[in-house]
Amino acid sequence: MPVVAKIAPSMLSSDFARLADEAQRMVDCGADYLHMDVMDGHFVPNLTLGAPIIKCLRKHTAAFLDCHMMVSNPEQWVDDFAAAGASMYTFHIEATKDASALIDKIHKAGMKAGISIKPKTAVESVLDVASKLDMVLIMTVEPGFGGQKMMPDCLEKVRVLRERFPDLDIEVDGGIDVSNIDQAAKAGANVIVAGTGIFGHKSPSEAILTMRNAVNSIRA
User: What is the pLDDT of residues 121-137, one digit of tens each?
Assistant: First the structure.
């Protein structure tokens, strides 16, 4: 089955005081996923949200909740996020000693499983388990904060993955906007996370459509 564009606004750039409304606004603008940045203040130097907020948001949306787990002990939170209503549980390869077992645990809990790798982590670190995954997330900035510039060198990892796994969902996250979406799309990314690039655009729906068209024109 050919991969298609999935656009995932990063809710880190939303107004957290109006999270449910912001989620609905993004869905109305055409979002496929809502990207939820979970940071524990240990794995990355920032603290954002946890399972209780996912649980509250789930009461107000049927959207696909794409949870990016920037946490030191991802095994600890699988059951909590599954119970809260997370759709995708993407952990960092750098944070676990047994990625294969964690993937199995996530699937058993009823969620899709993804792995993320930081800019300085080699793509080879995920090749052995990629066939078990629903998605691989290539970070194009150092995780922890929004509003950074994309690191184009990271897109080579996307090219390597796309060549080896033509049907895999490959997500990119960090500094993506309408000015550089073509680079990510040509590298082979089909799941696009954008925070400032969508929320900061004069027309979020236009930004989402531009990103979708860029990916699908390459994937056609």
Answer: 999 999 999 999 999 99
Q: At what angle do helices 51-58 and 19-28 cross, to 10 degrees?
A: 60
Long-range pairs for 59-63: beta carbons < 8 A, 24 or more residues apart: 60/20, 60/23, 60/24, 61/20, 61/23, 61/24, 61/27, 61/34, 63/23, 63/26, 63/27, 63/31, 63/33, 63/34
**pLDDT for the residue 1:** 56
Residue 164 tokens, joined: 């080896």
Give me the residues paired with residue 216 across strands.
none
- Grouping H, G, I as helix, E, B as strand and the rest as coil, residue 47 is strand
The pTM of this model reads 0.96
| CA distances from residue 121 to 36, 63, 109, 117, 135 in whole angstroms, order as listed | 22, 31, 27, 6, 17
Helix (H), strand (E) at residue 25 = helix 19-28
Look up residue 53 and give its DSSP letter. Answer: H
Residues annotated catalytic, as ranges: 37, 173
